[in-house]
Specification:
The protein has helices spanning 2-20, 58-68, 86-93, 117-129, 141-173, 187-196, 200-233, 237-241, 248-256; strands at 26-33, 37-44, 47-55, 73-79, 97-101. The chain is of the alpha/beta class. It has 2 domains: 23-129, Nucleotidyltransferase, domain 5 (2-Layer Sandwich), CATH 3.30.420.40; 141-256, no CATH class. The protein has a 5-stranded mixed sheet.
């Protein structure tokens, strides 16, 4: 029993010593971000001092970093991607210096092309420590929300193009469109194709896709209306409108991107 108590005290002292050993030091942390988890590697003075995996909760990670490296100056980095900038804002709010980097700008060694979470996190931590990472500009939350409309519109435009192609392919498959047909898929052309269709199955398929297409058109118009409102509220609107070649439509999307 006495031995166990002694060991416990020694472990506590070691942990306390470890916790305090980072006081006044620079800690460099690479974060490999995934949908459900973060893979994290920390370096101090050219040495990896900690590796861990945690759930993808920005506040939780910020708390962990503050606890593990109390009284140290913490620098973190992760690659821009699907996760956006919520993690960045939480880290900065916690007093942590964070960079969000363009994945294409991260160096890849010739002999180190195998991709693993820990290796990616280590690479970020290493490059961060030697000053070879450059962060991208972080938009404000307001800017992100405004950009969300233009990007949603773009996604809808892409969805609409995919629907048009599906209608064309089905009609080409059943001989309603030949390989020499160069007309753009339009609502008028869809009506013509429906008149040519002698198959109830093909008619249903075309009409189903066409209905989706028409609904997408409606949603795009709603978003464009809101974008015009936002553009008119922009303080630089008059400046952009004065530029040659910037018309009403292009001005809207130029302002919001």
């Amino acid at each position: 029993m006495a031995t166990n108590i002694s060991n416990n005290k020694q472990e506590t002292n070691n942990n306390s010593s470890l916790k305090n050993s980072y006081a006044g030091k620079q800690v460099y942390v690479g974060i490999d971000v995934h949908k459900r988890t973060y893979s994290v590697v920390a370096r101090v003075e050219d040495i990896v001092v900690k590796k861990w995996r945690t759930s993808a909760e920005p506040e939780k990670l910020a708390t962990q970093l503050q606890r593990y490296f109390s009284s140290a100056t913490i620098h973190t980095a992760y690659e821009a991607g699907f996760s956006g900038f919520v993690l960045h804002r939480k880290l900065v709010a916690a007093g942590i210096n964070n960079l969000v980097v363009n994945p294409a700008s991260v160096e890849v060694a010739v002999h180190n092309r195998v991709k693993t979470d820990k290796r990616d996190a280590l690479k970020l931590a290493t490059l961060l420590e030697v000053g070879r990472l450059k962060g991208i500009r972080i938009p404000t939350e307001e800017e992100e929300y405004k950009r969300m409309l233009t990007r949603t519109r773009q996604q809808l435009v892409e969805d609409r193009s995919a629907i048009k192609n599906k209608i064309r392919m089905k009609c080409h498959q059943m001989g309603l469109i030949n390989s020499d047909e160069r007309r753009e898929m339009s609502h008028k052309l869809v009506k013509e194709l429906l008149e040519l269709s002698s198959s109830p199955q093909l008619t249903i398929a075309i009409e189903t896709y066409w209905e989706v297409w028409q609904n997408i058109d409606t949603q795009i118009k709603k978003i464009e209306s809101k974008l015009r409102e936002q553009a008119c509220e922009d303080s630089h609107d008059k400046t952009y409108r004065s530029a040659p070649g910037i018309g009403p439509r292009s001005r809207v999307f130029f302002l919001m991107n």
